[in-house]
Amino acid sequence: MSGLIPQHSPARRPPTLQSRLARQVAERVQSGIDPSDVASQVLDAIRQDELYVFTHWGPEWRAELKKRFDAILAAMDKAAGP
Questions:
Q1: DSSP string across 22-74
Q2: The whole model's pTM is what?
Q3: Considering the domain boundaries, does residue 11 fall inside one?
């Protein structure tokens, strides 16, 4: 069966390679957010024509997102070539 899973698929990654952000999200999901709070945030975002809804925020989240987006932009620059 493992031959059917692409080599770089997340399904092949050992849990120790999960990003810190992914672990934090998993921990917070376990502790739970009231679904009605999330629903309210989503409805507000729809009404205000917002694309993103953040249920968690703060300096640690911002730093992790910045690191990820910087890596994405670096890959895009590399793909564009010299």
A1: HHHHHHHHHH---HHHHHHHHHHHHHTT-S---SS-SHHHHHHHHHHHHHHHH
A2: 0.49
A3: no
Domain span holding position 22: 18-80
Structural domain includes residue 55: yes
CA 6 to chain centre: 21
pLDDT digits (tens, 9 = 90+) for 52-73: 998 877 888 888 889 999 999 9
- What's the rounded Cα separation, in Å, for the pair 42 and 51? 10
d(CA 33, CA 42): 13
Q: Token pair of 75, please?
A: 């890959």
Number of domains in the chain: 1
